[in-house]
Amino acid sequence: SAWLAGCSAWTLLVTFAYAVAWSTLARRDASRRSAHSGRMTSGRTTSGASEPTSMLDWTVARLSQARVAKQRLLVRVQLLILAVMLVLLVWADSPIVLYGIGCWPSERLGVIWWPALLNIPGVTLLPLTLRPVDTENIRVGVLLFWAIGYTFSAFHVLSIALDIPVPVGEARYVGVQSDPLWLGFHVFTGCALLVGSNLDCLVLGWRHGPGGVSRMVEADPRQGLAWVHFKVRCIFQLLGAALLLFPALRVLGPDPAFAQNVNAAPMLVLGACAFASPLYAGPAARGAVLSWLGRLGTTAAEREAAVVSTLCGLGRQSDGSLLRKAGLSFRVISFDRLRSDDFVPGGGGGDADKRAEKAALGDCDAFVSHAWLDNAAAKWQALERWAKAFQQERGRPPTLWVDVVSIDQSAVAESLACLPIFLAGCESLLVLGGPVYTSRLWCIMEVTPAATPPPRAIQRDRQTDRHRYTHTHTHTHTH
Fold first, then answer.
1. How confident is the model at residue 475, as a pLDDT?
2. Which phi and psi (to 5°) does residue 174 adopt?
3. For a surface tag, which of 119, 411, 416, 467 has the fewest beta carbons within 10 Å of its beta carbon?
4. Per-residue pLDDT tens for 252-311?
5. Three-class DSSP labels, 226-262
């Protein structure tokens, strides 16, 4: 039929467009990787202007590469999700439109409920294209779900106004206006769609007045994205409840023969799938889907670089500005000024950050990485042993970068963005690893940049003593 031919042609068109976009990105990425590898091997930065004779130059070059990897991964995942979503929604909603205008061949293609099942994965995929930091895209997503709610509500209004035929009994059709249950189903479903798609407006408008949604998205994009996901679940659960209750009310009420109708079973299946949306639209399921999509066509190194770039917010500032901020805010503390209660959450006597002093990048003996939930006394004992050995060898106490004293507590977000540069500005990485350490995302992020050794020229430059950046990490286990 024309419907099958049209949907098949649309699927082929979207698939071809995605294949072309993917191959174009792959060729561009291969060219960039080749050029970057050549520059790094020959000892030149990503700009090609100077040689990375220090760890800082090399780290900035790697951060630039991480930013590119993040953008590449983001574009690939978003393109794939959009392509699949466009295909699913056309297959799912075109039968509904054709049925509404009286052009759906039910005798040959069956009821519209089976294709409508594709709406569930199609709509669920849409919020996955949004990231918590994309304020404008989240605002567009909120508007898009408003449009979806109003569009489907309008379909139910038109169904009533046009008095479209609806199934009753085993195989009969009557006008929707002449059947109270079908009329109630369309009214309830239309209202449910309006309420679900405007839930954020109703709640935030009542709390914060007109424009509450826009102000919320601007102030906290993550909360705005959470509202988008919540609306998806609410809409599906309201629709699922309507689709589950309607066949039951017909069979138990005035129309027992509806149990044999070809529409009854697919309505129940669609209702059950929609009502169970929290199982497949929750945070765990979304994370699993995005993780699987992110692994398609990418290497482990690219995914690690993308994670570092995202956590540090590298897309929002240039390499030069990041390096300048890191240089101005790099602070270290001598071990003899550090106290054991500095490793206790809320400890430090309130003057922890005042005991640190500014230093030049590179003038720090060790970057101390630890998890706050690990035992503070055990971490302090391990650090004392390491510092004692250091002082016996060097004749002075070590200078340390420790988060509680070295991070500007009035600008934590800006300091965290500089974390990879702070790490490169220290001679060694000292890991106070306890039972909790490997379960903390920021701890793993601190170790990740050190997992890739720098070029040999930089390694030789760092070998002024045995405390090298990547090859002499001190792993002290507190358990």
1. 40
2. -135, 165
3. 411
4. 888 888 888 888 889 999 999 999 888 877 777 877 877 777 666 666 656 555 555 555
5. HHHHHHHHHHHHHHHHHHHHHHHHHHHCCCHHHHHCC
